[in-house]
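Example 339.
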Amino acid sequence: MGPPLSPRESARFVAENSRDVLVDHEGVRRAAELLLPAAAAWRVEQWKSLHELNPRGADEAALGWVFLVDSLNFSFWAEREDSKCAVRYGGTPYTGYWALCAAVNRALDQGIPITSASYYATVSLEQVRDIFRSDTAVPMPLMEERHRILNETGKILLEKFGGSFLNCVQKSGRSAQKLMQLIVKNFPSYRDEAEFEGKRIAFYKRAQILVADTWSVLEGKGDGCFEDISSITMFADYRLPQILVYLGALKYSDELLKKLLKGEMLLNGDKQEVEIRGCSIWCVELIRDRLLELLEEKGENSPVEINSVLLDYHLWDYAREHREDMKGVPFHRTRCIYY
Ligand SMILES: Nc1nc2c(c(CN[C@H]3C=C[C@H](O)[C@@H]3O)cn2[C@@H]2O[C@H](COP(=O)(O)O)[C@@H](O)[C@H]2O)c(=O)[nH]1
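Predicted structure in complex with 56B:
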């Protein structure tokens, strides 16, 4: 089997052959109109200014933080919405993805060098359980997998990149695509691939968000000045499909919706799981295209930066802020290390 299709081509192929998930083109246009006012204000600097747990710096340590966090950036959803893992940091309880960031910052404050490859390459399961411990009775999911990934990833970073993700970034020669390929080639836990209708496809969600967070922590400057950042697609997680359905840009068949409302699990790689993820990526590509058209029509001359990364970030934050309103729309439950 040859190399997989790129995430964008994989998304197009899935959307063209999907049966249980549909991109609603009228919904795409409405979503773009709804997002247009906010889109004019999107800036790469918001990754820091809007999120207090993200690193302030743009140095090697900040890159080490991003690499560690994105190596563990998966599967935070709780079996029951009313009892979930939470990590208190600076007096605030954080849940989901933010619980991971809070636990990393808590460890660093306690003098545990959790972002150093020489540490996490040999960290023990007991130490990992303690570092990522929840302040509720519900632990963070997939703790054993997180431990295995820390050891595997740390060892590879030491062997191939001198223990520094900055070295990996510098090998990419300011190309987002080259950095993504370096990541999936060298780090097995990032190989988010599948088979669909006889073709090998790839969504590379964690590799793409790692490239995006690298671009963001470096504020699009120096080693992070990727001239092809616009070629990175949205990150196919379990939150974005939920908000795309909520906005009416994505539609599920009655059969699939019934399954999700019952809370049935989908296996990573299942046909319906691939359709949800692939159609979500394609849907965001189309919303991005429509936003660019609308800005063109408006003759918007302010230096607006519209790409799928900033659109994804905004939709993800929007989903977090509108959790209550979105309660009626189910997210798909898949337990895996890829998203
Ligand atoms: N598509 C997309 N998926 C994202 C993120 C983020 C956070 N990204 C950084 C970028 C902006 C902020 O500044 C953050 O620093 C996490 N996730 C995914 O969501 C899920 C966790 O959800 P919940 O259980 O509700 O916390 C899980 O699969 C996680 O991998 C994103 O931005 N886009």
